[in-house]
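Before we proceed, please read the two lines closing this message. Report back on whether the structure tokens fit the sequence:
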Amino acid sequence: MDTSQSPVTLDLLRTLHRIHRQLADLRERLARGPRLIQARQAHVQRLAERLAQLQAEARAHRMAVDEKQLQLREGEEKVKRYQRQLNEAKTNAEYQALLEQIKAVKMANSVLEDEILEGLEKLDQFKLSLDQAQADLAVAKAELEKLRQDVQNQQPILEAEIRRVEAELAQQEKFLSEDIRDIYYRLLRQRGEQALAPVEGQSCGGCHQQVPINMISKIKLNEVVFCKSCGRLLYLPE
């Protein structure tokens, strides 16, 4: 599509491309806000789930420690009971059996004491982790709320700017001749703001393929020229 159509000024193509890129940037900024909020919400959700998981693990560990402490108390009571029974033993065999039982229970109690101590230390670690997780969640929630407010404040400003630039674009598009207007709008539907491209050196600024010298000469004469490779409407930069 390197055909020459009705003359179109280079200034007009430059202006149209500038406006299209400006519009694309504004629309991207407008769309970016909700995406950022969604991503921040997902981050808050992950932190909340992590906190809930830590809380569940801490509760389970607390219950396990409590169970071991109950077993230890029962073991200590058992030792006391066996010690009382020592005084009532009738035979040496009964006495020795009680001593063996006391020894076994004390050994089990010693193991429980070590496990309880280890469990309590782990509970202290859980507390530190929970405190940090709660602090991280609070910060993330505050950041999310601030982002929501910023996006809410920016939205009407961006929407007003988009309307202004759209009006400027519509005004400039009136200067397009009839025979190029349909092609121009078709390219816009296909490529958006990438429908136009400057010639950079001797290459298309869109696809970077070389533009023949004769085509560049036509552009200088204000003729309508399209890149043979990508189909973009070409113009010369200032």
